[in-house]
Amino acid sequence: MRKLVCASVASLALLSACSEEPVTQTAVDSRGVEIRWTSYGIPHIKAENWEGLGFGLASAVATNTVCVLARELITVRGEQARYFGDSERNINNDAFHKALLHSAKLDEYLNYGSDESKSMDRGFVDGYNHFVSSHQGQFPATCNNQPWVKAIDLNDLARLAIGTGIRYGLGRVTEAIVTAAPGTALAALTPLDLQVDVETIGSNAVAFGRELTDNGRGILLGNPHYPWQGASRFHLAHLTLPGELDVMGVGLIASPRIAIGFSSEIAWSHTVSTALRFTMFRLDLVPGDPMAYSLGDEIRNIEVIDVEVETPSGLVNRTAYMTHLGPVVASDTTPWTDQYVYVMRDVNYENYRGGDQYQAIQQAHNVAELKAALGKYQGAAFVNTIAADSSGGALYADMSAIPNVSAELLERCDAGDGGRIITLNGSDPSCDWQVDPEAAAPGLMPPSQQPNLITEKYVTNSNDSYWLSNPDMRLEGFSPIIGNEQSTRSLRTRAGLNLVEEILNSGEPVNQSMVQDMLFEHRNYGAELLLDDILKVCQLKHNSELTEACDILSNWDRRQDVTSVGAHIYNEFWIAAARGINAHFAVPFDVDDPVHTPRGLTID
After folding, report:
1. How many CB atoms lie within 10 A of CB 498?
2. Which of these CATH numbers, 3.30.70.100, 3.30.230.70, 1.10.1400.10, 2.60.120.20, describes 522-601?
3. Domains in the chain: boundaries
4. pLDDT tens-digit readout, 234-288
5. Any catalytic annotation for residue 203?
6. Where are the alpha helices (DSSP H) in 421-566?
7. Out of 8, 203, 255, 427, which one is annotated catalytic?
8. DSSP label at 414?
9. Full-model pTM
10. Cα 170 to the chain's mean position, in Å?
């Protein structure tokens, strides 16, 4: 496990101590691509050029997960119903991908990018195809000899990239797009749920700078949480292109890049950001014509996109509707009436910069260069970046792809219900995302208006907004589309900040083992805040079942270890109580003490 731990807790002072595991297998391709497989199935890929690097990475990913990647390729091609049954869900998903990932969109993606990025993509396609053709009959049972494991082309990589990017926007409303039709009865419309539940995601990262570490170098704890199954699972690899790149880390199975990792000079991690990646727009329809809408003094027609989905029993037709802002989304809260139609514009449907973005990140020598790379491309789709470098710098930044919607524009153009999901007046041209020449693409928020912090102390994030990246250096005054400020933080955010506070209060310089121990603390911070008061309530009640539970909780070590008796009882209590507990805190949220409030329970 030593190499894995070194990859997870990237202490730049001690990377040289992460010695190589014994080589278990080496393969050298005729293209000059070398893949060394070491213990724990880690591929170390060395190539002579970017195309060879892509070839080797694809070979390694396919070796470990060919069935998973092949299935995802079928998904973004819109062929689920053809191979896996004509359920309504499969048909709708296929129609969505066929309607939105059309040839013109793919051409836009493929025409963008540096020569190096394009070369790596070509190599990835060749590497995957070489693996598929040379391993016929040798795949895992899940996909062995299945017709859906087949050769790919660059269009497929474009589909994967766009499909991954839109998962927190258009990808959440697939059915509402391909079942949209004017005048549909409200009761027949799809319910819409666009809120990202922060309780279901769990990434954490802390970067310590030279003022706090024992050797003046940076230390990064990267603790990303993403699915353990499917194409969003991480794949670990080490990529070397002599003189240009030497980086180790993880990328999603469905992505031909390393997304989180480290070099000899810098280490970085990601957490999913609170920034919205889309806005809804309400368009005013022309009276008597549900297929035409006004845009200032203009009248524009809604484009009809008809697609055919292949199923075992024949072709199924579906229709999507497109505007200059994006597709029509018809739901119970965004109905297509005789007055209005609602559409979604997703910033990552227009994001073709991911390949160049991650190449620039991987080639950065310090956090200042990493920040500059983030600002140049703004190609990170939906994440914060937390990093540390060998000179002792620490970085937090949400300089990702975010719509340029200021607080002023939101107040002037709001056509929604005032909730977190933003709906703008799409028939007023001045209410579209603002164009700023500083931004990497039209409609993006410029880097100067995005939260970031470079320090020699520390930064952290646990999926909350940017506000308390460091409580002593608060980031404030940004657009509400990025996140909230001066409000209660999640227990996970507060737990992380509390752990950092305890380390700093110890008076000892921060070292690698301290940071590694943070990962395995397994403390239940909610219990540390509330359990004493809960046990006081127990003493006031006289119920045999409650008494037994309280006795167990009184002896619980307030950890989530496998030996912690009582953790499950507290967890069940918290699931039931969390939504309504705010009204019962003894000490309410205090903007001047956000790490330690709210806390305690009122007892009456």
Report:
1. 17
2. 1.10.1400.10
3. 522-601
4. 999 999 999 999 999 999 999 999 999 999 999 999 999 999 999 999 999 999 9
5. yes
6. 491-505, 512-519, 525-540, 544-555
7. 203
8. B
9. 0.93
10. 14
